[in-house]
C-alpha cells in the first residue's frame, strides 16, 4: 500500500491488541453459540426496534441542513450543502445530481483501526446511499446542479447504511431540499432461520460470513422506502438467501420502516416549529428595521422635494431672466 | 396526520404529506408536487393558501422557515458581487435572490444589458469595478452554469462600491447617476449607480449636491 | 439625489416625482438592499447569522460591531465560548471525548495497537495524532485527501502535544526493542465554527487522561503475547496542556485581539484559522504559533500570553 504522506502514520506492522485476547480466537461455531445465548437472554424486541432510534436535526452549524441519527450504538452525522454547479461538466443535465460520501471514523469499528483513506467499503456505501435517496428528491427542480450529502459514521455497531439513509433523509428535509416523501430505512441480518432486525455488529458480521460446510440462508438486507407513497427506493441484499426468506424479510422490513415514520415526523415537526419561531424573531427585528428605513425614506423624499423645488425656482428665475 | 393547529404557526407540513386533491380550483404552488391527482408537500414548513383572482384558482404552497434551496428565476432581483470586468461582459457572483441568501451562483452581465439608453457607447469599465455589490435582474436562462443578468433599469446598478486605494469598508457615496465619490479620499469614480435610498444623507447635503451640480453643469451626462 | 433628476428632465419630474418615489420605496423594501442600513441602527445577536448584510458586505458588517466594542455574536473581545465536554461516548474507541466550543464540535477517539519499537529508539512507544477536517464540517472543505490547511492543523496539534511532554513515550514501551504500545489518536472535526486547534487539544488531553492500558505479558522465548483486558493500568499524564487561540483584527489605530474566534471572525482576520495560538502546560509555554493575520506589537503578544496563562490556572 502506498504511504499516506499527508497524515501521520504509525508503524507499518502495528496490530490491534485485541488479536491477543482470548476472544479473538473463537471459531464460527463458538461465536454463533455466544450470540444465540445472548439473544435468548434478551427478550423479543424486534417490534420495538423503531423506538430505539434517536434522531436530531440541525446539529452542524455550518451546513445547510444536518442530522444526527443513533440506532443502537451506531452513530451517524450527516450534513447537506446547497446546490452547487457540477464541476467539470459540459452537458446539460435536466435532473439535478446528488453527490454522496459515506466515511467511517478511524475509531468507529471495534476491532481494527480503520485507515483514514477511503476504501472500497466507503465507496460502496456512498453509492448505496446515493441510490437510496435519489428517488426521494425532486431532482427536476435544480437542473444542472449538484447537492452534496456527507455522512460520517462515528461509531459502527451494525446497520450503518440504514442509519446513514435515515440521517441523510432528515438532513435533506432540514436543508429544505424539495422531496417527494420522508425516507426511512431499516436493515436485517438473516442467519439460518433467525432474523435479526436492526442487527448489531456481531450479528451482521456473522450473517455475512459464508459457511462452506452448510448451505444455509445468510445475509444482510437493507431496505429504504417512502412510506406515504408506499414505494421502495432501494433494496440491498448481501449474502445468499432463499426467495421465500427474502419475501418474508421484506414484509418485516416494510413494517419496520413504517414504524419509524412517526418518529422521524416528530423530529421534523419539532425542527419546523423551532425554525418558525426563529423566523418570527427575525421578522420582528426586520419590522423594526423597516420602520427605521421608512423614516429614512421619508426624510429622503422630503429633501428631494426641497431640492426639486429649488431646481424649479432656479429654472424659473433663469427663465425670467 | 401531523397537523399542529397552534395559532401562531399555522399548519405544519412535512414532505410526503397529502394536502388535497388537485383539480381546476386548486393547484400546487412552490414547495409542493402533484402526483396522481393529489397535491403533496415537498418541503417541511407551513401551509399557505392563496387565492388567484384572475384564474379563479387556489394556489396551495408550502413555505419553509429556513431559506429554501432556491435557484434564481428570470425576473428575480438579485444582489451580486462583481468579480471580473472586461470590455464585453461583467462577471459576477450572485449572493442573494430577493431577500434570501443563496449559495453563490455565477452571473454574467453583457455590455448591452448594462444600460437601457445609449447602448452603443457603454463602457463596462466606467460602470462596474471588481468588488462592487450590484443589484440586477435575472434574464431567461440561455446557457448552462451562467445566469444572464441585466441592470438596464434605473433602480438597478451599483449599490456598494469602494474606491480604488481606499480601505475596505469605506463605501463611496453616489453623487450623480453615473458617479460615486469616496467620503474619505474624495476620489470620484464612474459607476452605473442604482437609484436607491442612500446609506447616509442629511437634508443639507442633498441640497448642497444640487448647488454643486448647478454650478458645474452635468459633467457626466451623456445627453 | 441629483441623478434622479438628470434622468428625465427636471420639469417633468417635478410633477411625477412623488409617485415614482413611492413606487421605488415599495420596490426596494423587498430587496436585500435595504438590509444595508440595518447595521447602523440596530444590533441584534439573535439573527446575526442570517443577516444578508454579512454576506453582501462582510467587512463593513464586522467593523460596525467592532466599533461598538462587541463581536457579532455578542461576546466581548476576550470572552470565550461555552465549552462542553463529553467523555467516552463511543464504545468502539478505547477512550473518546467530544468537545464543543460553542458550535465547534470535535471528537477524539483513541485506538490501541501493538508494534515493535523503532530500532533507533527502542524504549519508546508511539503516539500518532491526526486531525481530520471532513467535508461535512464546513462548506469550505472538499472531499478528497487532506488539504494543506488540514495538514497544518494536524501538525500544530501534534507538535503541541509532543512538546508539552504530556505523555512520556517511555511509558508506552512494554518490552524494550520488542514490543510497545501504539496510541492512535484520531481527532475528527464535525462542525468547524472556528478555533479548531483549541478544541482538538482539549479533546485529545481529555481522552488521553482517561485512557488505561491493558496489561501485556510477553514471552521473550516463544514471542507469545498475551493481553489481559480485565487488568488495566491508567496512563500517566503530566499536567494539562491548554491552547488558547486569538484572531487579530487589524483596526485603524491598533490591532484587536479576539479570543476564541469563530469562523466568521477568522475569515475577517486573514482566513486561515486563528492567527496566534499560545499553549501552556504546567506553567511552561509549549508553543506559540503566529500564523498570518494582522501585525502584532510586542505588548499585545505579551498580553496574549498572559491571557492564555490565566486560562490554564
Key descriptive features of the protein:
heterotrimer; A: 321 residues; alpha+beta; Ribosomal Protein S5, domain 2; 5 helices; 11 strands; C: 313 residues; six-stranded mixed β-sheet; four-stranded antiparallel β-sheet; disordered N terminus
Verbal overview:
The complex is a heterotrimer of chains A (321), B (223) and C (313). Chain A is α+β, with helices and mostly antiparallel strands and 321 residues long. Chain A has one domain (24-278): GHMP Kinase, N-terminal domain (Ribosomal Protein S5, domain 2). Chain A is built from five helices and eleven strands. In chain A, the strands form two sheets. In chain A, strands 2, 3, 4, 5, 6 and 7 form a six-stranded mixed sheet that branches. Chain A has a four-stranded antiparallel sheet with strand order 9-8-10-11, with helices on both faces. In chain A, helix 2 (120-133) crosses helix 3 (160-174). Chain A is elongated, with a radius of gyration of 28 Å. Among the domains of chain B are: 12-63, RNA polymerase II/Efflux pump adaptor protein, barrel-sandwich hybrid domain (OB fold (Dihydrolipoamide Acetyltransferase, E2P)); 77-158, Nucleic acid-binding proteins (OB fold (Dihydrolipoamide Acetyltransferase, E2P), Beta Barrel), CATH 2.40.50.140. Chain B is built from one helix and 16 strands. In chain B, the strands form four sheets. In chain B, strands 8-9-10-12-11 form a five-stranded mixed beta barrel. Chain C folds into three domains: 2-66, no CATH class; 83-234, GHMP Kinase, N-terminal domain (Ribosomal Protein S5, domain 2, 2-Layer Sandwich), CATH 3.30.230; 242-312, no CATH class. In chain C, 30% of the residues lie in helices and 30% in strands. In chain C, strands 1, 2, 3, 4, 5 and 6 form a six-stranded mixed sheet that branches. A four-stranded antiparallel sheet of chain C has the order 10-9-11-12, sandwiched between helices. In chain C, a hairpin with a 4-residue loop joins strand 7 (212-219) and strand 8. The radius of gyration of chain C is 27 Å and the shape is elongated. At the A-C interface, strand 1, strand 4, strand 7 and helix 5 of A face helix 2, strand 3, strand 4, helix 6 and strand 6 of C. Strand 1 (15-16) of chain A pairs antiparallel with strand 3 (104-115) of chain C, so a sheet runs across the interface. Chain C: It is found in: Cytoplasm; Nucleus, Nucleolus. Chain C: Residues 79-214, 239-311 form the Exoribonuclease phosphorolytic domain. Chain C: One of its GO terms (biological process) is nuclear polyadenylation-dependent rRNA catabolic process. Chain C: Its main location: cytoplasm. Chain C: Belongs to the RNase PH family.
Amino acid at each position: 500500500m502506498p504511504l499516506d504522506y499527508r497524515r501521520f502514520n504509525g508503524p507499518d506492522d502495528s496490530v490491534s491488541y485485541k488479536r491477543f485476547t482470548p476472544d479473538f480466537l473463537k471459531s464460527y461455531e463458538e461465536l454463533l453459540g455466544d450470540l444465540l445465548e445472548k439473544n435468548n437472554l434478551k427478550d423479543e424486541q424486534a417490534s420495538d426496534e423503531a423506538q430505539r432510534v434517536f434522531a436530531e436535526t440541525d446539529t452542524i452549524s455550518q451546513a445547510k441542513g444536518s442530522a444526527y441519527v443513533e440506532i443502537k450504538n451506531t452513530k451517524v452525522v450527516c450534513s447537506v450543502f446547497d446546490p452547487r454547479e457540477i464541476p467539470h461538466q459540459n452537458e446539460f443535465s435536466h435532473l439535478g445530481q446528488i453527490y454522496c460520501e459515506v466515511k467511517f471514523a478511524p475509531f468507529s469499528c471495534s476491532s481494527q483501526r480503520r485507515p483514514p483513506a477511503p476504501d472500497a467499503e466507503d465507496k460502496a456505501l456512498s453509492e448505496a446511499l446515493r441510490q437510496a435517496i435519489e428517488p426521494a428528491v425532486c431532482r427536476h427542480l435544480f437542473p444542472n446542479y449538484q447537492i452534496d450529502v456527507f455522512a460520517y459514521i462515528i461509531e459502527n455497531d451494525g446497520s450503518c447504511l440504514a442509519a446513514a439513509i435515515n440521517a441523510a433523509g432528515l438532513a435533506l428535509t432540514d436543508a429544505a431540499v424539495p422531496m417527494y416523501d420522508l425516507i426511512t430505512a431499516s436493515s436485517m441480518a438473516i442467519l439460518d432461520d433467525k432474523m435479526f432486525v436492526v442487527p448489531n455488529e456481531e450479528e451482521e458480521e456473522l450473517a455475512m460470513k459464508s459457511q462452506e460446510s452448510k448451505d444455509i440462508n445468510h445475509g444482510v438486507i437493507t431496505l429504504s422506502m417512502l412510506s406515504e407513497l408506499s414505494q421502495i427506493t432501494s433494496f440491498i441484499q448481501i449474502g445468499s438467501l432463499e426467495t421465500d426468506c427474502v419475501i418474508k424479510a421484506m414484509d418485516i422490513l416494510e413494517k419496520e420502516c413504517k414504524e419509524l415514520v412517526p418518529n422521524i415526523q416528530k423530529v421534523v415537526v419539532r425542527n419546523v416549529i423551532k425554525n418558525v419561531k426563529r423566523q418570527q424573531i427575525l421578522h420582528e427585528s426586520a419590522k423594526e428595521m423597516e420602520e427605521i428605513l421608512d423614516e429614512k425614506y421619508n426624510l429622503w423624499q422630503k429633501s428631494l422635494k426641497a431640492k426639486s423645488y429649488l431646481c424649479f425656482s432656479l429654472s424659473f428665475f433663469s427663465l425670467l431672466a | 396526520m401531523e397537523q399542529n393547529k397552534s395559532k401562531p404557526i399555522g399548519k405544519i407540513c412535512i414532505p410526503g404529506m397529502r394536502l388535497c386533491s388537485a383539480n381546476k380550483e386548486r393547484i400546487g404552488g412552490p414547495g409542493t408536487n402533484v402526483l396522481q391527482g393529489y397535491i403533496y408537500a415537498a418541503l417541511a414548513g407551513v401551509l399557505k393558501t392563496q387565492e388567484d383572482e384572475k384564474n379563479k384558482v387556489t394556489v396551495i404552497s408550502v413555505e419553509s422557515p429556513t431559506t429554501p434551496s432556491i435557484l434564481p428565476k428570470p425576473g428575480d432581483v438579485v444582489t451580486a458581487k462583481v468579480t471580473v470586468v472586461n470590455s464585453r461582459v461583467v462577471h459576477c457572483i450572485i449572493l442573494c435572490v430577493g431577500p434570501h441568501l443563496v449559495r453563490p451562483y455565477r452571473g454574467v452581465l453583457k455590455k448591452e444589458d448594462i444600460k437601457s439608453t445609449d447602448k452603443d457607447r457603454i463602457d463596462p469599465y466606467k460602470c462596474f469595478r471588481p468588488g462592487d455589490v450590484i443589484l440586477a435582474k435575472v434574464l431567461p436562462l440561455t446557457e448552462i452554469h451562467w445566469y444572464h443578468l441585466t441592470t438596464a433599469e434605473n433602480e438597478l446598478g451599483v449599490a456598494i462600491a469602494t474606491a480604488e486605494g481606499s480601505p475596505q469598508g469605506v463605501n463611496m457615496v453616489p453623487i450623480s447617476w453615473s458617479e460615486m465619490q469616496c467620503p474619505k479620499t474624495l476620489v470620484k469614480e464612474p459607476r452605473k449607480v442604482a437609484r436607491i435610498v442612500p446609506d447616509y444623507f442629511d437634508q443639507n447635503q442633498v441640497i448642497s449636491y444640487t448647488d454643486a451640480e448647478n454650478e458645474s453643469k452635468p459633467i457626466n451626462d451623456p445627453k | 439625489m441629483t441623478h434622479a433628476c438628470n434622468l428625465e428632465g427636471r420639469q417633468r419630474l417635478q410633477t411625477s416625482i412623488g409617485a415614482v418615489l413611492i413606487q421605488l420605496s415599495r420596490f426596494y423594501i423587498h430587496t436585500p438592499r435595504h438590509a444595508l442600513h440595518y447595521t447602523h441602527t440596530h444590533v441584534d445577536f439573535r439573527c446575526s447569522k442570517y443577516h444578508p448584510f454579512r454576506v453582501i458586505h462582510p467587512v463593513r458588517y464586522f467593523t460596525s460591531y467592532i466599533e461598538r466594542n462587541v463581536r457579532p455574536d455578542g461576546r466581548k473581545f476576550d470572552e470565550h465560548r461555552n465549552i462542553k465536554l463529553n467523555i467516552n461516548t463511543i464504545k468502539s474507541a478505547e477512550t473518546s471525548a467530544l468537545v464543543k466550543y460553542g458550535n465547534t464540535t470535535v471528537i477524539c477517539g483513541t485506538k490501541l495497537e501493538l508494534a515493535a519499537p523503532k530500532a533507533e529508539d527502542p524504549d519508546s512507544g508511539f503516539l500518532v495524532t491526526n486531525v481530520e477536517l471532513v467535508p461535512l464540517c464546513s462548506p469550505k472543505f472538499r472531499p478528497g485527501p487532506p488539504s494543506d490547511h488540514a495538514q497544518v492543523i494536524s501538525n500544530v496539534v501534534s507538535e503541541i502535544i509532543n512538546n508539552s511532554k504530556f505523555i512520556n513515550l517511555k511509558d508506552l514501551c512494554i518490552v524494550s526493542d520488542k514490543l510497545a504500545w501504539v496510541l492512535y489518536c484520531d481527532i475528527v472535526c464535525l462542525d468547524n465554527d472556528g478555533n479548531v486547534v483549541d478544541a482538538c487539544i482539549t479533546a485529545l488531553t481529555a481522552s488521553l487522561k482517561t485512557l488505561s492500558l491493558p496489561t501485556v505479558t510477553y514471552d521473550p522465548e516463544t514471542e507469545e503475547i498475551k493481553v489481559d483486558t480485565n487488568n488495566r493500568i491508567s496512563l500517566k499524564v503530566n499536567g494539562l496542556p491548554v491552547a488558547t487561540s486569538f484572531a487579530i483584527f487589524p483596526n485603524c489605530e491598533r490591532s484587536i485581539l479576539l479570543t476564541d474566534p469563530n469562523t466568521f471572525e477568522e475569515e475577517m482576520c486573514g482566513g486561515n484559522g486563528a492567527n496566534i495560538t499560545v499553549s501552556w502546560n504546567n506553567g511552561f509555554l509549549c508553543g506559540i504559533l503566529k500564523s498570518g493575520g494582522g501585525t502584532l506589537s510586542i505588548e499585545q503578544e505579551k498580553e496574549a500570553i498572559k491571557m492564555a496563562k490565566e486560562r490554564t490556572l
